[in-house]
């Protein structure tokens, strides 16, 4: 019964979304305020309906309702509760439903918190957002309905893909979708602005919080995915330049560019049409990502539900929304005149270079991802584009970005003197070069990556500190400055924290790639191997039975310089229902390094294949990403964005203050 | 009974044979290092998107052994690559060759960067020489509201 209600709610949401699209858009065009006003209740109602539908599907998974085809294909009664719930979005249909829930949620937040938006802009934003919902709800209802019943329900399900039965991956998709789909708000604002024919400083301010929220969720989502790959795939790779990873990385790069260019719109009323274009592209890349993941045109480690017919539908959505918006941009974009005047050396131009580097690096990822397809169709060459290409083609832009960032961040607006702005940064630069040189001298190999990463990391982190210090003004004792730095706006803190996080991630990646150590051996139980200053003893191998899997579990003792530091239990699991093996690495997490152990197959002559890696600074990669998103949270909590609440309070105060006549 | 069945099943399914196996490793550390570097650049043809160095598949193992055999036989790195491309096509390489149409792939990034740089510098020059727009498009009331909003 609940399942039928969920299905019905989804159909109702489709109808509401059509109303949400048509009525406010027509109203805004004709200037009918009652038609425009429909946008808010419709967006709200659409969200509750879709949420109910999602709840109904979750209920079916939790209660293991095997009359539902989707539950049969992705669940099993023995599965732990967490994975019964995450199984809801561990498949094509359910994940698409989650997509739509988040889409509706973002639309609804514009309805709930958009008090300060001019009515026509709000109506248009909600209308455009509604139209995206219409497209995706139609996609679900007509091609990927999660509520299909089976005539003869089986006794039990076929289990979820074992690789997905993992805490890291359980929460990876919701965060990723919050990011992907959150960019739809930037898109809706851009199209609404094009329809209005006007972009001003206020628009720049309104579009930022949503972009910031989308970006920070995307950051967390990507970090979770990378962390999962690190401990689950069995050899500790953290990024594969896989099409599916690139699909999430491209919107991230564009969203980062958009965040920065929207600042220029807000503060200086320049870069308007470029910002609009970025907003369209950001969501365009989200749609391209959806297309890549679900259509199966590109092969990937983690693509699921490949279906050409669905691919064609998503391609249609992609062409309609991106193409339509770009056409509108071509017609209307020229009308957005820039107002701010600034010199070639200024914060504005630094942000322009930030955008150039981020956009071009996104382009490099894009062409690398699509090239196998292009080469096959246009040149009849069947080839692969793998990590070596991306590492070579992408890295220079990141280095350029990191090298320019600290200076750009402290340049004054309008007109700057680069030499003067650089003055307080000389110490940071000197320290960075010194650390880089020190690392170069100390390392055993001759890799340039490690020292470069260390230097850039120091430059970014110390540069962020200098940025905060400069914000405390020209004069004052250290304690006065300290008092001021604590009271700085959260946006300033957010900026510094995010930039420092970027530096930490760069260092983590460089260090891991430069200084990783490994050993692969056959060990008899009781024997040990040595990697660097670590000794790993294989003490025992036993068979263990889990709730829905069988495991070969090893016990390995880790000694550092003879000191007992940890016991690891790497496993090799087999999920009989899905007939799939997985590896679970045993990891001793540390601040400076991870000790990463994997147990392999029993050997013919007795003993087990054992791999042990020392992964220096591995956790800094994800730590940096988390710090970056923390910077986003700080910035998002700045009181400027709560201006609606503040303005309301002031109005009320003013109303009370006026004496009655 | 069911337990026995599951155990038999589990035995039938091969466990994950992971990446490089101990018995594949060459005695000569220099050759082994070269083999690892080469392997990272060779695609496991039956896998979705993994190099033979990372892959668990049987074919990847065969290719790893093949690479090592060629190296021991005295092939240079380029010889090994040519041999593999000859047998499996350029699909087997994870680094696309810099030949023919692939020039577009390799040089598109730098070319677009230079183009974007030129456009950006042109734009910045324009901004520097532009006159501050005197007349606002906003009505007075809107301008006031904007100021109130931006003051926070």
UniProtKB/TrEMBL annotation, chain A:
<keyword id="KW-1133">Transmembrane helix</keyword>
<dbReference type="Pfam" id="PF01578">
    <property type="entry name" value="Cytochrom_C_asm"/>
</dbReference>
<dbReference type="InterPro" id="IPR003568">
    <property type="entry name" value="Cyt_c_biogenesis_CcmF"/>
</dbReference>
<keyword id="KW-0201">Cytochrome c-type biogenesis</keyword>
<dbReference type="GO" id="GO:0020037">
    <property type="term" value="F:heme binding"/>
</dbReference>
<keyword id="KW-0812">Transmembrane</keyword>
<protein>
    <submittedName>
        <fullName>Cytochrome c-type biogenesis protein CcmF</fullName>
    </submittedName>
</protein>
<dbReference type="GO" id="GO:0005886">
    <property type="term" value="C:plasma membrane"/>
</dbReference>
<feature type="transmembrane region" description="Helical">
    <location>
        <begin position="425"/>
        <end position="442"/>
    </location>
</feature>
<dbReference type="InterPro" id="IPR002541">
    <property type="entry name" value="Cyt_c_assembly"/>
</dbReference>
<dbReference type="InterPro" id="IPR032523">
    <property type="entry name" value="CcmF_C"/>
</dbReference>
<feature type="transmembrane region" description="Helical">
    <location>
        <begin position="274"/>
        <end position="293"/>
    </location>
</feature>
<feature type="transmembrane region" description="Helical">
    <location>
        <begin position="496"/>
        <end position="515"/>
    </location>
</feature>
<dbReference type="InterPro" id="IPR003567">
    <property type="entry name" value="Cyt_c_biogenesis"/>
</dbReference>
<comment type="similarity">
    <text>Belongs to the CcmF/CycK/Ccl1/NrfE/CcsA family.</text>
</comment>
<keyword id="KW-0997">Cell inner membrane</keyword>
<feature type="transmembrane region" description="Helical">
    <location>
        <begin position="125"/>
        <end position="144"/>
    </location>
</feature>
<dbReference type="GO" id="GO:0017004">
    <property type="term" value="P:cytochrome complex assembly"/>
</dbReference>
<feature type="transmembrane region" description="Helical">
    <location>
        <begin position="249"/>
        <end position="265"/>
    </location>
</feature>
<feature type="transmembrane region" description="Helical">
    <location>
        <begin position="6"/>
        <end position="26"/>
    </location>
</feature>
<dbReference type="GO" id="GO:0015232">
    <property type="term" value="F:heme transmembrane transporter activity"/>
</dbReference>
<comment type="function">
    <text>Required for the biogenesis of c-type cytochromes. Possible subunit of a heme lyase.</text>
</comment>
UniProtKB/TrEMBL annotation, chain B:
<comment type="function">
    <text>Possible subunit of a heme lyase.</text>
</comment>
<keyword id="KW-0408">Iron</keyword>
<protein>
    <recommendedName>
        <fullName>Cytochrome c-type biogenesis protein</fullName>
    </recommendedName>
</protein>
<dbReference type="GO" id="GO:0046872">
    <property type="term" value="F:metal ion binding"/>
</dbReference>
<dbReference type="Pfam" id="PF03918">
    <property type="entry name" value="CcmH"/>
</dbReference>
<dbReference type="GO" id="GO:0005886">
    <property type="term" value="C:plasma membrane"/>
</dbReference>
<feature type="transmembrane region" description="Helical">
    <location>
        <begin position="104"/>
        <end position="124"/>
    </location>
</feature>
<dbReference type="InterPro" id="IPR005616">
    <property type="entry name" value="CcmH/CycL/Ccl2/NrfF_N"/>
</dbReference>
<keyword id="KW-0201">Cytochrome c-type biogenesis</keyword>
<dbReference type="GO" id="GO:0017004">
    <property type="term" value="P:cytochrome complex assembly"/>
</dbReference>
<keyword id="KW-1133">Transmembrane helix</keyword>
<dbReference type="InterPro" id="IPR051263">
    <property type="entry name" value="C-type_cytochrome_biogenesis"/>
</dbReference>
<comment type="similarity">
    <text>Belongs to the CcmH/CycL/Ccl2/NrfF family.</text>
</comment>
<keyword id="KW-0812">Transmembrane</keyword>
<keyword id="KW-0479">Metal-binding</keyword>
<feature type="domain" description="CcmH/CycL/Ccl2/NrfF N-terminal">
    <location>
        <begin position="8"/>
        <end position="150"/>
    </location>
</feature>
<dbReference type="InterPro" id="IPR038297">
    <property type="entry name" value="CcmH/CycL/NrfF/Ccl2_sf"/>
</dbReference>
<keyword id="KW-0472">Membrane</keyword>
<feature type="signal peptide">
    <location>
        <begin position="1"/>
        <end position="19"/>
    </location>
</feature>
<keyword id="KW-0732">Signal</keyword>
<keyword id="KW-0349">Heme</keyword>
